[in-house]
Every structure is written in structure tokens, then in C-alpha cells.
Amino acid sequence: MRYGVGAWPWYLLALVVIGLDQYSKGLASASLEYAQPVPVFSWFNLTLHHNTGAAFSFLSDAGGWQRYFFTGIAAVVSGLLVVWIYRLQRGQWLLALSLALVLGGAIGNVWDRLVLGYVVDFISVHYAGYYFPAFNLADSAITGGAIGMILDTFLGRPEGGTKED
């Protein structure tokens, strides 16, 4: 049996991710000075950055067309994720959870691109002078969702589960 209209809790989770992401970005934008790190731990700073590119600032200096390109890709992927979640078999909770996290993260970043023209990043992790590119809660949700999808692939279907469940 498919989730169908019973997929609403997963869509609600995606909305919660979007809400938390937008709230945290709003706090960061209101509280932090651009590119001025605020140390939290020896390996963790809050540092406001505006990313006009994709992951790791890929194509951030491409001249502006990338805003619409990445928005279009994310919009299409988000639409596909909505349908995928709807069509999932009941019992595929890990895959549904993972897809909901990716959906919420993708929409959170798309919202920034549409409204601001860039994605707000503010989480900075570093060690021994090496800095991981700044990111946000949406990026974290997307990463967690991707990890969940990989785990779901290895864990497989529940025992006795079939494609017709």
C-alpha cells in the first residue's frame, strides 16, 4: 500500500525544516556582521556569508545566471520529491524521512535564492586552520537526507516486503 494522502506527516516535516532553516537564517542575518566570525567552540564559528553559487560556492562568480539555473533545478527536484514521497510504499519510513529532509532543505535554499538572490550560510566548522565551507540548516538537512537515502539502499526492504505492499 502506498502512502498517498497519508504522506502528509512527511510533507509536514519538510515544512518544519523550511521553517527552522528560515528562522535560523533570519537570526544569523540580524545578529551577525558579514564575514566576521563569532567563535562558539575552538572548532566552530558563526560566520555570515552569502552564497550566490551552489554547494561549496560552485559557480558563485558566474555573473548571475546561476541563480535562475539552480532555482530551476531545485524546483524540478522538489516537485519530483513530492511525487516520490506520495508514491512510496508504507513502511519505507527511512526513505520517506530522508526525502522529506532533502525536500525541506532544497526549498529552504530555493526560497533564499528567489527572495534574496543568494543563500544565507552561517555555520563554520574548522580544524587546525582548515575551514569547511560555510553552510546552513537546509544544507544539513539535505546532507542528512542523502545519508539516510544511502542507508536505506543498504538496509533494503523490510523482511517480507514486496513492491506491491
Report on the structure:
This protein is of the alpha+beta class and 165 residues long. It has one domain (4-143). Helices cover 54% and strands 14% of the residues. The chain is built from four helices and four strands, in the order αββααββα. It has helices at residues 8-31, 65-87, 93-115, 137-155, and strands at residues 38-41, 44-51, 119-127, 130-131. It has a four-stranded antiparallel beta sheet. A hairpin with a 2-residue loop joins β1 (38-41) and β2. α2 (65-87) runs antiparallel to α3 and α3 (93-115) runs antiparallel to α4. The protein is globular, with a radius of gyration of 18 Å. Its EC number is 3.4.23.36. Belongs to the peptidase A8 family. The chain crosses the membrane at residues 68-86, 93-111, 131-155. This protein specifically catalyzes the removal of signal peptides from prolipoproteins. Keywords: Aspartyl protease, Cell membrane, Hydrolase, Lipoprotein, Membrane, Protease, Transmembrane, Transmembrane helix.
